[in-house]
Specification:
heterodimer; A: about 425 residues; alpha/beta; Aspartate Aminotransferase, domain 1; Aspartate Aminotransferase, domain 2; seven-stranded mixed sheet; four-stranded antiparallel sheet; 17 strands; B: about 150 residues; alpha+beta; Sufe protein. Chain: A; four-stranded mixed sheet; 5 helices; about 40% helix
Chain lengths: ~425, ~150
Amino acid sequence: MSAAPHSALAPQSVQAPLDVAVIRRDFPILARTVRGKPLTYLDNAASSQRPQVVIDAISRYYETTHANVHRGVHTLSQQATDLFEGAREKVRRFLNARSTREIIFVRGTTEAVNLVAQSYARPRLGPGDEILISWLEHHANIVPWQMVCEQTGATLKVIPISQAGEVDFDAFERLLSPRTRLLALAHVSNALGTIVPVERFIRAAKARGIPVLLDGAQAVPHLKVDLQALDCDFYGFSGHKMCGPTGIGVLYGREALLREMPPWQGGGDMILAVSFTKTIYNDLPYKFEAGTPDIAGVIGLGAAIDYLGSLGLDRIAAAEHDLLAYATQELSAIPGLRFIGTARDKAAVASFTVDGIHPHDLGTILDHEGVAIRTGHHCAMPVMDFYGVPATARASFAFYNTRDEIDRLVAALQVAREMLG
Amino acid sequence: MDLKDLYRDIIVDHNRHPRNFREMPDADRHADGYNPLCGDKLTVYVKLDGDRISDVSFQGSGCAISVASASLLTESIKGRTVPEAEKLFQSMHELLTRDDSTVDVTSLGKLGALSGVREFPARVKCASLCWHTLDAALHQQQEPVKTE
């Protein structure tokens, strides 16, 4: 038998499932221990880990190519600009957007939503207008709209969810009104893992001429996103949840809408000409990228896209689906464990409570076993209120996790039950 | 650092069977406390006989540390004067937050069981929430207490 390749970037058959042992070697952090135990990192919905190729891309950029972009005629500035704009093209291709003019670099999903709220919604909305969101939303897709409503007198309407954690389509249709000006939906719920069948919602909204924003923070790392097929108007996501750096994310916007929108922030890079009487704004996408951007972050994001692309989103989704199925089966055997969110179509998130043990205590005890999960309200307090719980424990899986790690999670939960149950 | 330093038997017991866990409709003072990080919410009720705390109770939901801490609090301050309770609050605060604490743990009675919490920085707020809430109740503070 030949030796295993050193990196998942080495050619693998497209049909073959991912070789997780090989993949794990790409992520240096997975080799570390926590409290004397091997790290079992199951907090991927909060933030994923980075492969060496992403870390190297950032280091190499700083070591060999750093200069400011879009400014100098000197070689370094040109090379840095080429890398930066090359990453924008990688994002475009990754999401199948029509043009790089539609790809705006922001700090993350939160900033993407805020940009649309302030630059698209705020100038257009007035008293009596309505923004529709769902009960599943992360605070980042609630609070920016509440702020716009306060600023404009518009009203925020919320689509209810079922006990399983699925957005109620019939209720959505009933909530649509002649005053609905925007639909803002999670593509995948961060707290529950529900994959929202956004295509249906988008079709119904578009039929009434209502623009749609999707919060793709939890979707982009785990399923293939095709923006032209989805036909939404805005789409935001974060680099750090998809093996890229923190502090960088993307807002996709339909070009026709972006053209009409005023800049959100003013400064360098977003202008063509400035005098004290008049400033002419730059073209898309630069109109929305004031100031020196996170160049290293963008280059790192490009490397993360290359990495995920080399594995294949389909194979990633298959591996994670297998992990979720195994985790669901094994966790079900724990007495007193209740799943929060049981949608038919779910990303690899297991949110749960255990009778008699507060999630925060679970978090501490699991950490002692080297198992990192998220405990709390997951920045989705309305979801917690819906289920009548103050918090849940959430294990979220990535393609580099293993069944052994799920076994360690289950064993650690048994320790917690013995201690506090 | 062992988990058993955090979840000592007395803490596990007070979590399973919290003492003075009831509403007090005729309380002279009460205050709400909230820990946004973990969602712990509790209300502390106090009945005063002059300067003396004649009765104290709490209600709410939270993790084992916050429930046990509140339960132990009620046991330890019932019958004490307000200045004595405030002095105990200062001692608990120092015990929970300062590595160089000189508080004599044995002088705290059962409350000393919470000394292990200091080794788990993420959980200090769980243990101190009830004490801040008691302090707010005694000072008739209107705003709910938050640990963030």
